[in-house]
Amino acid sequence: MKRLPRMPRPVTPGPASAVRAGARAGRAARAGRAGLAGLAARAGLAALLLTALAGCAPAADSSHSAGSGHPASSSQFGGYPSFLPRSTLNYHSDAVLTGTVRRPALTNEGDGVKAETTRWSVLVTVTGPQVPGEGLPYQAPATTCTWVITMSGATGAVPISASDFTSIDDLGHVYRPVLVPGQPKPPTTLLPGKTVSFELRAVEATGEGLMRWAPDGRNIVARWDFVVEND
After folding, report:
1. pTM score of the predicted model
2. Coil, helix or strand for 29?
């Protein structure tokens, strides 16, 4: 009797085959994820390179105001700091003070004072003192001092007298300067629209002092601080 050939039995995947298939699928998935990660890393590196190149490129000049073509003041050397109040932009330490009998002004020599009374006001400036010389081998305790008085902007008839000006040193000694001989004498009254300058002179101790003006001879309305130096 002739035997018939055996037919191959169908292979049923067993646990091992399932494990191998799962391993192959895991390797494929990991390979895919690795490929995606590599692409992302390369894209990130490209973005960083582009950012670095943009930083090296010349930037637009932000110091120019829009449409004006002129540089902003803050970009200039020594420009005004933007964080400071704008009210201090044109500040001057030599601003004119107002002096009255009730509140006499106190300022530095060379600065103006607007002296006010019930009848008039006037701008007064005291400059000095000037001394004969400095750097002498012997510094005397006192020296000849010369001041220049300038008055202008009167709103009425302002009386002028050298005797209304007095000086006082840091020890409380009072000096009464006089008109400088040979120099033009001021009028007895300053009228509106006129300006007058004259010189006063006195021998005064070295050191700090104050020039004072009392237009009525009694009540001081303005004082100017100064220093007498001959060294």
Report:
1. 0.60
2. helix
